[in-house]
Amino acid sequence: MQRKTLSRREREKLTQRQEMLAAALELFSEKGYHNSSMQEIATRAEFAIGTLYKFFKNKEDLYKTLILEQSDKFHTAIMTALEEGEDEVEKLQNYVRAKGTVFMNNVSVIRLYFAETRGASFNIKAGLDGEIRKQCEQTLQTIARIFESGIKRRRFKKIAESYQLALAIDSLSNAFLFSWLEAPETHPYPEDPDIILNILLKGLVIN
Amino acid sequence: MQRKTLSRREREKLTQRQEMLAAALELFSEKGYHNSSMQEIATRAEFAIGTLYKFFKNKEDLYKTLILEQSDKFHTAIMTALEEGEDEVEKLQNYVRAKGTVFMNNVSVIRLYFAETRGASFNIKAGLDGEIRKQCEQTLQTIARIFESGIKRRRFKKIAESYQLALAIDSLSNAFLFSWLEAPETHPYPEDPDIILNILLKGLVIN
Amino acid sequence: MQRKTLSRREREKLTQRQEMLAAALELFSEKGYHNSSMQEIATRAEFAIGTLYKFFKNKEDLYKTLILEQSDKFHTAIMTALEEGEDEVEKLQNYVRAKGTVFMNNVSVIRLYFAETRGASFNIKAGLDGEIRKQCEQTLQTIARIFESGIKRRRFKKIAESYQLALAIDSLSNAFLFSWLEAPETHPYPEDPDIILNILLKGLVIN
Amino acid sequence: MQRKTLSRREREKLTQRQEMLAAALELFSEKGYHNSSMQEIATRAEFAIGTLYKFFKNKEDLYKTLILEQSDKFHTAIMTALEEGEDEVEKLQNYVRAKGTVFMNNVSVIRLYFAETRGASFNIKAGLDGEIRKQCEQTLQTIARIFESGIKRRRFKKIAESYQLALAIDSLSNAFLFSWLEAPETHPYPEDPDIILNILLKGLVIN
DNA sequence: GATGAATGAGTTTTCATTCAT
DNA sequence: GATGAATGAAAACTCATTCAT
What we know:
Oligomer: homotetramer
CATH superfamily of the largest domain in chain A: Tetracycline Repressor, domain 2
Number of domains of chain A: 2
CATH class of the largest domain in chain A: Mainly Alpha
């Protein structure tokens, strides 16, 4: 940590930057990228538009920065969760729980994030996809290795390829989270996230 | 059917409409909604722009019509599949297979469709969501009833609420299809779609 | 001539185009390229700005079109004058007179034209220069050949290279025309344009 | 000279000012007035932009100052050359030579200068023209007087008004210099600048 | 006195929509 | 009824200028 070495000016700049990104996040997730103007973003962040352009060279840059920053945060949290835990089941439990936490604490960015990874991204050129895709793939590979290890150690039945199992657990957790996102009241995210896991493990675990 | 009662004029109009929607679909899925102009759509459909506006009152209307029409098509195909089949397992097999067929035969519209159902839709105002949400919900309820029936008839273990199981099978099939969509070569959609089902059923079915 | 074959629509378009170019010419020569906005040009031409962009794909295109069109007109007039005339002296007389006529009838474009050929053109990229430069060079070569021929036929003394003489007569006529342009009252363009020519010929012609 | 009386502070300021003007000159002649920003100028001169504004009240002021300063330098050099020399021919020779020297040593400012005196100056409001126009006029009058004197002293034939002859020699030297500027290789400025003069004098001088 | 971050007016350009022919 | 020319509102982006530190 060298946060101490940041001058007052630098700390201020960082704060401003965060305020701009926060305003952009709000607007993008409220109204979408194309329906949010740079002027609106600047106004919401309480800066002049010129100041916004001092920090981000154009609208696309602002968007990419925003997405990548959030994506990094998510990825780090998820990967950390996957590393912690005594055995395979514990690691997967940690994963599902961490994902739930991240998701619920970042609702506004989530739709934006999935628009980028799943939706018809408005942004055809984007080298952005690449970066995020890599992170997703890395996560899936890590999960796949956990299943692989579980299968080798005879804790799991090999009901499918380990990569397919990774895909399965990833999509199951997403589905439950979206379900919760759309109707938190009627579709609560399982208080015991293991429910999600169990759907898989019931068929998987060797008793 | 009262197709017989349509005059030549009316049949022509219907054809024109389809051509416009087809052109719009192509462009929207190639370049996204905001990067496709009404002029481009009209040109690709080989109509004057004024004619386009005779059929759709504005760009949003064109978009909504397009999405809803496709969504209806999908929904009908899926619901039909869910109705056919002797027992619960067969119905679910039909569902997974039908979904695969629909998906692969309509690749261009799929991203657009998921942008609408999952992504940060660019179009917040749209009451569009509502219509589609209802269809999705109906499908999920139908699947849930199939699980419910299976559980009641002691064919399935009750490893989770039936709605949750419906959510699970829906998201699993989506996940495998997206995986295939992104890299058809390295992640082929299972030749035997039952693989997807098995991931669930292995833990579910009572032997 | 196939002007007859132009439809009413086409003729209208041509007229509109001319009106836009005329408005642009006025503004550019009044206030310069960078101080004239597309909105101003559109307004002065009595069109909406969108219409202006239907005719010219951007501001630079409008500018280049304007300059090249005028430059072509000048070049054609000058070259024609150089071709007409019995002998060398007559050709040169025609040249000086034609230049005077063109200049005086197109005062507003002249400064613009010289800005492009002489001044620090604002337009660094411009492949525009190239086109015009070629025309100037062609004119100079033609004049040079006239001097060459005059020298060979012993009508002129060889007081300098023929290209230098061409340069000389070109610059002399420009100088007198600019002098007139800046103060038409006190520096009238010689009623007898031969005065300009004489400055050269007095030393040139073999008596 | 009261340079001695300048304090260190004042001398420093003068140096800074020169550095700013030099940077502005470079940029204006490289990219034109409107394509050079105050920020760029400040950066190239290695000052803060605020400092630039301490010295020049705005961009136009900077530009005017620059042009006038250069113009003064040229004017002084030219006038000095015109004063030196035994007789009329020698004075004119000095003029042509001095002009060549000034021109070649200040290539970067020359286009800028001619843009101002000849081109469609981007800057219509500018009372700048006035100042420079006066200097040009003074030079022309001085040259005219030299011709006048030559004519009176029967050294020159009166082939035209003396002012017209001044105009002629001025434009001839410009033309040759521009020709050189555009293609130094193929159109070298006459090693013997008298060639330029001769074009005029051949017809002028009484043998 | 020097600095350079902040400002926002002003510019180019696009495109959904209208309406006269 | 079809057409597509004309419109102008709205968006991205720049940069001269100011002023608090």
